Amino acid sequence: MKQSSLKSPLARVKSLGSARSGTMHAWRLRLTAFALLPLTFAFVVIVVSLAGRDYDSARALLGSPGPAILLILFVGAGIWHMTLGMQAIIEDYVHVEHKKLMSLIANICFSTLIGVSIIYALLRLSFT
Amino acid sequence: MAEADPAPLPLEQRRPLSPHLLIYKLSPTMVVSGGHRVSGLFLYIGTLLLAWYLLAAAGGSHSFQTASAFFGSFFGQLVLFGYTFALMLHAVGGVRHAIWDAGKGFEPEERKKLAWGSLIAAAALTILIWVAHFILR
After folding, report:
1. CATH number of this structure's domain B29-136, picked from the four choices 3.40.50.12280, 3.40.570.10, 1.20.1300.10, 3.30.710.10
2. pTM here?
3. Searching chain B, which residue's CA lies closest to the CA of residue A103?
C-alpha cells in the first residue's frame, strides 16, 4: 500500500482513520431517499384504501400486480434506507468498540429479517 | 445511549469533540433535526407493524382478523396516526435535506422558514391523509 500520510499502517488499522466508505453511504442514503418519495405516496394510497377491508377484499388488493410491485419496491428501498440510517445513529452514539460492532450486526440482521418477511408475505399474497 | 470508553486515550491524543447538546439554546432547526432522527427511529420500529399485518394477511382469515382488529381499535388507530406523522415528517425532512444538498437555504431566515415549513407541512399532510381516510371509508 502506498503510504499517503505520516500515520503508520498500525495507527490506521487501530481505527484512527477513514474507512473510505462514507461517500457511498451518503450516496445510497440519498438514492433510496429519492426513490422513497414517490413510493411513500403509493404506500399511503394503498394503506388508506386497505382500511376497513375484509379478508377477501384486502387480499384482492394486496395480491394485484400494481400494489404488490409498488409495495415490494417501497419495502426494498425503505429497508435499505433504514439500515443506513440506523448505522449512522449507532456510529454517532455507541463508542465502545464491541458494543458498536454488535449493534451494527444486529441492525443488519433485524433489517434483513423484516425485509425478507415482508417480501415473503407479499409474494405469498400474490401467488397463493 | 452514549457511554464512556472504559479505556480512554490520554487527553492529548483524543479526537476533538463538539460542545454538549444542552449548551445550546433550543432553535427550530434543532427541533426538526432531532425530529428527523426520532421519526426515522419510529419508522424503523414501525416496520414490525407492517410485517405483522402483511404476514397476518398472508397467513389466513383468522390471523388477518386479529391484526385487523388491532389496527381498527382506538389504540391501533392512535399508533397509525403517530406513524403517519412520523412518515410525513421524515419525508418532508428529506426534501429539506435535498434543498440543503443542492446548496440552497442556508441563510438564517431561510433555515428558520424551512424548519417551521416542514413541521407545518408534515402536520397538514397527516391531517389530509386522515381526512381522506375518513371520507373514503
Report:
1. 1.20.1300.10
2. 0.87
3. B1
